[in-house]
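Memo subject: From amino acid sequence to discrete backbone structure tokens
Keywords: amino acid chain, backbone geometry, structure tokens, three-dimensional fold.
Body of memo: The sequence and its backbone structure tokens, given next.
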Amino acid sequence: MQNWIPKRHAVRKNINGKFPRRHLALAASTLIALGLSLLLLPGENAEAKRTAIPLNLELSPTRAASNIAESAPIEEPEKPWTEVQVKSGDSLSAIFSRANLTPQALHELLTTAPKAKALNKIRPGQKLSFQIDESGELTAMSYQVDKLNSLIFERGVTGFGTTELTETPEIRQRVASATITSSLYKAAQDAGVNQSIIMELANIFGGVLDFVYDVRKDDYFIVIYEELYLNGERLGSGQILGAQYFNQGRSFEAYRYINAQGEVDYFSESGESMRKAFLRAPLDFTRISSGFNPKRLHPVFKTVRPHRGIDYAAPRGTPVYAAGDGRVSAAGYSKANGNYVFIKHGEAYVTKYLHLHKRAVSKGERVRQRETIGWVGSTGYATGPHLHYEFLVNGVHRNPATIVTKLPAPTKLSSGEMPTFKDQISGMQLQLKTYAAQRNYTNTDAG
């Protein structure tokens, strides 16, 4: 009975007591094998650990330090800028003085920096920024010419260098349309069109329409043009892309076109240049106070004297334009004509402009169509501010209001260029037709 013991109790006892020698040897062998397997077999994260540790045995201490320096460069802090606002009556020397800079610094900047002459055009409200080092020496200066352009002047070895910075504005298209009630200018203003676009619109159609003589009530126009934005702020207007003017049952279209040489002009749908040899009228938005009349009663002398031109009543100071390209053949003052300018256009044509307040050109100068040659006044024999305008063909006075329609036809695009032109303006044509149809539908629906 004493020798019968359950197996589990025997094992427990053997653990708590002594093992036989054979058993001890077997146990020792098993433990050694188990230990070796633990040392030789990798754990589940061992491979990941090995691949995560880079082996760069050839990297020297110097190279390692260089890599660290490259990955974390030490930058010197930028020197602070001092901003000075231009006040009314300010001079550059006064501004430099307020920035604690010497007259010598100003002189060095003006004499060494390219485009430094632009600083002579600073206006009240503009700001100049100066970068000055610890010793009080000017190292850099910034001048914002306008919202898109800036000049940066930086000190170099031999003086100051200049860097021009130009912001690129966002371009958005805008469409405006208006019906004429009194004048193109008033209708366009009421439609929210700014003055530069109004003037350009008159310039584009100036060869086919006299905006004094031809415009009638209920005429209307549609114009598609660019507006420029920077950081969400509207800066102004860009180019007119396309326009249509409806005048007494007639329709005139104009499209901006850039040819293969990069030249820009406006053309009708058929490829005919909108720029005619002569403007229909040499100034904008006025009224005719006296027309071409061989038997007119003179307002000053009260005698019948031929009126060989057209009088355009306009406020003093209204710009007067050259009606066409040419050369100034005479410019001066006389008792009857006041300040005057005569322009010769080739061999056959001469235009005359009388009673100017001031002249902008001198004898012998070449002028381009729509270039300002003077301003409306009342000098000489004049009862009020107006422009007296004459047109001569081979020395004979002709009616300026009608002669331009009888002159040679304007230039046209070549047949080879027409496909490119048609392709370039097709989108703008569709837009103009869509807006015109919408306008007519709205007006018919309203009626």
User: Anything to note?
Assistant: The longest strand covers residues 233-247. The chain has ten helices and 20 strands. The domain at 81-166 is CATH 3.10.450.350 (Nuclear Transport Factor 2; Chain: A,). The CA atoms of residues 348 and 395 lie 8 Å apart.
